[in-house]
Design goal:
Blueprint (H helix, E strand, L loop, with lengths): L3 E5 L3 H13 L3 E5 L2 H10 L4 E5 L7 H11 L4 E6 L2 H6 L4 H6 L4 E4 L4 H9 L4 H6 L11 E4 L5 E5 L13 E6 L2 E6 L7 H10 L4 E5 L3 H17 L5 H22 L3 H20 L3 H5 L11 H14 L7 H13 L21 H7 L2 H9 L7 H9 L20 H18 L4 H10 L9 H10 L3 H9 L12
Parallel strand pairs: 1-2, 1-3, 3-4, 4-5
Antiparallel strand pairs: 6-9, 7-10, 8-9
The structure holds fe (ii) ion (FE2) (2 copies).
The site of one fe (ii) ion has 5 residues, from helix 13.
Length: 481
């Protein structure tokens, strides 16, 4: 069933154009030109979303908004402004509109595609699935010429789909050339994918970056299901969560930390929490994990995974601390997006002294990006600011020392250093751990309690329990092996 939207805009040509666009995008559209018609439509029908121009007359936009507020709770409303200066003259801000139940304010000029993205930010997974056009079978393959930076990549064996694919799927033919092999709404065809995989040796699938949000939503939902299933090996669970987290971080780094992005981040953090909470054999993966791709966002995912696994070892751990830290880990290096491009992938030891100074600004730059973001709590902000502070005072930017550093930030610092060693030197996790423990000076960077807990991350929890259960004067002699 298609989702219904109501368009209210006195500008006839815009209204007609928008109606056509959303019909083509498989929505059901009611378009009206004034507030009175809008109220009648709202009275008679239910809409997934209402898009209303601030300049609406004959029942003004404000009157209609009040009507909506008193008649239906949780109605999604997007207000459109023709000109910023008109809104300013009426002292209309997005914040004020949000107080009366409006989700977003979009000021022209914007493209229809941008408006659709704002709208689809509100789609739940079931909305998303409901809005996929139902087709029988599979459409023709079509060749598309678009630059590589429009696409996100996923390994073919790690691609999951519902019955109907939720977005277009491509394979890469050559630089800037793609073949659309499944169109939105096509029945998912394992045969077709297998054909590419086995006969044509295709190892990756692509989707357009504008569908990244849908990818995250669907795969996060799948991750939760997989995590709840005891028969699925921990390794597979970690891998699917890795894909979700990496794509989420990519989204946040490219579109910015907007409220809708944070909402999605919370869902991802919830899944991280579920994995950390429920997977008693996670240690088997944590001590041998080797699936990373240095070009993508593996680094932030692994920092998230190991930081939250360390927290899990503490008695004071809670869902809130795990989710907060997961959020901070995903964004910990966001400040690097403000550094010049040459810093991408550069390790600190290859930098000139001036570059090092510049690099050391990234925690503060990151903090600056999110300082006023009310959707993120203060701990998240402080962890990002302090993730390079070291327990012995040798860190940056403030050379904070000891207890002055947030424990959660020191945990992220440890996990961050660990992941750097592991990825830069292509070491097994246990080898990277040894490297940290053997560096007598370096190990002072962390509160010693953290090191103790970190070692436990790699140990079978049942074994730990057994050892703890033995009183120190026990006469029971442990069996060898
Ligand atoms: Fe960093
Ligand atoms: Fe980092």
């Amino acid at each position: 069933m298609a989702l219904k939207i109501l368009l209210v805009d006195p500008d006839e040509s815009w209204n007609v154009q928008a109606k056509k666009f959303f019909l083509d995008a498989s929505y059901e559209v009611t378009a009206v030109y004034n507030g009175r018609e809008a109220q009648l439509a709202i009275y008679n029908d239910k809409f997934f979303a209402i898009i209303i121009n601030y300049a609406t007359e004959n029942h003004s936009c404000m009157q209609v908004l009040k009507f909506i507020k008193s008649n239906s709770t949780n109605q999604r409303v997007i207000v459109i402004g023709n000109e910023q200066k008109v809104l300013d003259a009426h002292d209309i801000t997005e914040e004020k509109l949000q107080k009366i139940g409006v989700a977003n304010l979009c000021v022209k000029p914007f493209t229809m595609l941008q408006l659709k993205e704002v709208l689809e930010g509100h789609l739940s997974l079931s909305d998303l699935m409901a809005n996929v056009p139902k087709k029988e079978g599979i459409s023709e393959e079509t060749e598309v010429s678009l630059t590589d930076d429009n696409f996100s990549k996923i390994k073919i064996e790690e691609f999951y789909s519902s019955q109907a694919v939720l977005f277009d799927i491509y394979i890469k033919l050559s630089a800037n050339k793609y073949l659309k092999i499944l169109h939105t709404g096509d029945t998912f065809s394992k045969e077709r994918l297998d054909k590419y995989k086995n006969e044509k040796k295709v190892d990756a699938l692509y989707f357009h970056n504008s569908d990244r949000r849908k990818f995250i939503q669907y795969n996060n939902y799948l991750s939760k299901k997989l995590i709840a299933n005891e028969n699925v090996p921990a390794y597979n669970k970690v891998n699917i969560l890795k894909n979700v987290t990496e794509k989420f971080i990519e989204e946040a780094y490219t579109v910015g930390i907007k409220p809708l992005v944070i909402d999605q981040g919370r869902e991802v953090c919830e899944t991280v929490f579920q994995l950390i909470e429920s997977q008693t054999d996670l240690y088997t993966v944590l001590r041998s994990y080797q699936n990373f791709d240095p070009t993508a966002y593996s680094h932030a995912f692994l920092v998230t995974l190991y930081s939250t696994a360390i927290i899990k070892q503490f008695e004071w751990q809670s869902r809130a601390t795990i989710e907060t830290t997961a959020m901070a880990c995903m964004f910990h290096d966001i400040g690097k997006t403000l550094l010049p491009k040459e810093f991408i992938g550069m390790s600190m030891k290859d930098m000139s002294p001036e570059q090092v100074e510049q690099y050391k600004q990234h925690p503060e730059l990151g903090f600056g990006l999110i300082e006023n973001n009310r959707a993120l709590n203060n701990s998240v902000k402080q962890i990002i600011l302090q993730h390079h502070e070291a327990f012995d005072g040798s860190g940056f930017p403030f050379q904070k020392k000891g207890q002055k550093i947030l424990t959660l930030a020191n945990i992220v610092c440890l996990a961050d250093d660990f992941v750097h060693i592991m990825m830069d030197e292509k070491l097994q996790p246990t080898e990277a751990l040894k490297r940290i423990l053997m560096d007598k000076a370096g190990v002072k960077r962390y509160n010693s309690v953290l090191i103790e807990k970190f070692i436990k991350v790699f140990v079978d929890p049942d074994k730990v329990k057994n050892e703890v259960a033995l009183p120190s004067n026990s006469r029971v002699v442990k069996k060898a092996g």
